[in-house]
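lol ok so funny story. i was supposed to be doing the assay writeup but got distracted and ended up predicting the structure for this chain instead. priorities right. anyway since i did it might as well share w the group, maybe its usefull for someone
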Amino acid sequence: MSLVQVNDGTVTLHSTDKIFTITDFKPEGVKQFKPDLEEKSTENEGQQNGNTEKPKNNKDQKEDSIYSACLSNCRQFIAIATEKKQLLIFHKEKLVSRTALSRKASKLTFTHTDAGKLVLADKNGDVYSVDIGENCGEPKLVLGHLSMLLDVCLTSDNRFILTADRDEKVRVSHFPNSYNIKTFCLGHTDFVTSISLLDDSLLVSGSGDGTVRIWRFLEGEQLQIHHVSKDVNLPEKQNVEKQMENMIVDPKRSQPSETPAVIKVKAFNNKSNLFLVQMEGLDGCILYSYSAETNSIQLQQIIRCDHALLDFSIDAVNSDVVFLTHTKEEASNFVLLRYKLEGSKLSESEAFKIPSEILACVGDSNAGGDLETLHKRWFDNMKDYLERKQIRI
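and the output, tada:
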């Protein structure tokens, strides 16, 4: 779930009930938009249905809230997925579509250029597309995974859709006829958390196995692999023993992963073959470059923050990077840090302390704490079977 999105210098954040935009990192550039999340019913709706009983006012009923949001490249449309499985689409802050979903949408992305489609995915493995316009259509099922879906992206020409799941694979499908699968990118040994396109033929992926990999995705060919934790000397997870103590099953049969996972990868859209990696347990980010001539991944820079990095986004227009983290003075406050790309290095240009009314938009979910449940457990069922068989003999 992305917390930060930046487009042409404008940063977009969302709280539980508001959308905030910050222009030029200035207090006077902060604007807020509060969408109407609750669907209102007419007063006479009950009487029309023959029901004269007044609706009950349930004060304990939880109000709906924003779960994920996405701003279109033209900045005219905003798509919002809510906790109560609604999809709301706004055009210039005017509601043009409200749709009930079967499951809560965890990923939202608009197609590139002016193709006019919204792609949404849920963690159960289904991907839908919605026609965007003054009269938006209903969500149409595009493809489905048998595993939890963790990330989705589209090629620049909108011909292919790439999806990453918990079953260690990346699927490349035609779009919008995604029943036609082009290929698979197979090689990761744990869940694939994030994918991003370096160019029209190269893909970078990050995984729970602690690696980033470069793919020629249309052929499903792995070009390079790099173990990220070796560059920053991250220690093995300290809570592995605690996890094993809390397990219901025999710990000898279920070993949690000790390798820090890659949380997010994001490539620069300037054909520089540069990409950023967010790593579990690292208070910061790592900048890498990929050389097609030598087929190698090179470490360029390690950017460290004073506290946990919550999220980051790359501006596709000017290649600026915006980091969301805690302030240096107090961990309960938050700050946006903007970095400029100069050659193959990033340098901090300015900071913006987030006003108190926006503080509810952030949490520690993107810091990697929710990745523990994605690691698969190995169970030796044959061991018990053979022991019981030996007893019978």
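Confidence is low (pLDDT under 50) at residues 42-49, 247-254. Residues 381-392 form the longest helix (12 residues).
back to the writeup now i swear
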